[in-house]
Design a protein that fits this description.
The complex is a heterodimer of chains A (about 170) and B (about 30).
Chain A: H1 2-41, H2 45-74, H3 78-82, H4 90-117, H5 125-154, H6 158-165
Chain B: H1 8-30
The chains are: A mainly alpha (about 170), B mainly alpha (about 30).
Chain lengths: ~170, ~30
């Protein structure tokens, strides 16, 4: 049982997490600056039409998979982490909360606004401009939160926690 | 004041500062 929950669970958690955060970094470090450049010579349509929807598909579902697999790994200690019931679970609790806020941002702020930006749902130009700003700031917020989130994820458990927190 | 999240460096530096604050807080409350 431990092999499935902690062994396979952690492996799949990291795999889906790499997909999620990798695409988050792609959006922030590559696609957003590229689209800003492309807007100057009108060459961004291909990115918006063919790349962004695919990237967003894997991005949002990888976020869900990562969170669910994280919950599987926590198992019976889920509440110990989320409610900070035991001090051993404080570091992973912080990481779990940061990850949870990030999943919320993906599904509540980024994806609904991206649907307007990409024309998947009807929106006026004014609504699109507002959606662009909200999605951008939510994405940047997630990039910022990913830094402490990954710190606490990698500094949790066994020798790693001892090394970092004593 | 400019929003630090408007620049990539501002975003990364904000993340590092937040990491430091949370690290100190967790260390403080753990023991």
């Amino acid at each position: 049982m431990d092999f499935i929950q902690l062994g396979l669970g952690r492996w799949l958690h990291v795999l889906s997490g790499v997909m999620w955060i990798g695409l988050l970094y792609y959006f922030n470090f590559v696609q957003v600056p590229a689209l800003a450049e492309a807007a100057k010579d009108g060459t961004g349509a291909g990115i918006t039409k063919h790349v962004a929807p695919r990237a967003l598909f894997w991005f949002r579902w990888a976020a869900v998979a990562t969170w669910l697999l994280g919950a599987v790994i926590l198992g019976k200690h889920f509440l110990d982490a989320f409610l900070f019931l035991k001090s051993t679970y404080y570091p992973i609790g912080i990481g779990a909360w940061l990850g949870t806020i990030m999943v919320f941002n993906v599904w509540v702020l980024i994806w609904p606004n991206q649907k307007k930006i990409l024309g998947l749902v009807q929106a006026t130009d004014e609504e699109k401009a507002k959606a662009r700003r909200v999605a951008f700031l939510a994405s940047r917020t997630n990039t910022m939160l990913s830094i402490p989130m990954l710190f606490f994820m990698t500094a949790s458990g066994g020798v790693f926690r001892t090394a970092v927190f004593g | 004041m400019k929003n630090p999240l408007d620049s990539l460096w501002g975003t990364v530096i904000s993340g590092l500062i937040l990491t430091l604050i949370l690290y100190q807080a967790v260390k403080f409350y753990m023991y």
